User: Fold this.
Amino acid sequence: MSPLNPITQNISGIRERIREACARSGRSLEEVHLIAASKTQSSDVIRQAIAEGITHFGENRVQEALEKWPMLKKEYPHVTLHHIGALQSNKAAEAVALYDVIHSLDRKSIGEALAKEIEKQQKKIICMIQINTGEEPQKGGVQPSDADALIRFCTNDLRLDVQGLMCIPPADVPSFPHFAFLRELAKRHALPFLSMGMSSDFENAIGFGATHVRVGTALFGER
Ligand SMILES: *Cc1c(COP(=O)(O)O)cnc(C)c1O
Assistant:
């Protein structure tokens, strides 16, 4: 592969920025997972990222992921696949079969559908609860006022393996208050993972404790 391959360059640039952000905030590099947000990217492009050592990928649509990942997972069993897009209950069976981590658990009905499938398929799935920190009607995520109840329900009643929280801050405002809110909520529930930060703000998110940054454009280029 040519050293001028843009994905190669992008990945090394992002890794450097993650290293610097960790150094600035006194965090260890091992705490921060880079998830390549690979929606709309072809399997060949994904293979290039895997060749550069990327081991975490995030997909948004179950249907699209089903077209790429059964084959890719056979080729690269060490890769961890994350679901970062909206999830419908009627896709729970496919999602549980395909993914390792689900970031978008945002209502009881999805939690129930996932718990049922996890039991049936005897699979281990890590869950994160998506919080609509900006209270935007068009966006997924539980409202902040309902977050405590949903976290408790998924953890205590459904016995899901809830490990963290996820948010997608509004596009047009500074994201740091959203990151700070998510960090406090996770702390209150003793949840270790924070899925926050995208191409435009992942360094900032790391400063606020992100353990999973989801980077698409900065890694693969404009979609
Ligand atoms: C596409 C996507 C990302 C990555 O966004 P970029 O701005 O391209 O880095 C992160 N999180 C979610 C949920 C996404 O859908």
Notes: The mean pLDDT is 97. DSSP finds nine helices and eight strands in the chain. The radius of gyration is 17 Å. Residues 131 and 167 are 5 Å apart (CA to CA).
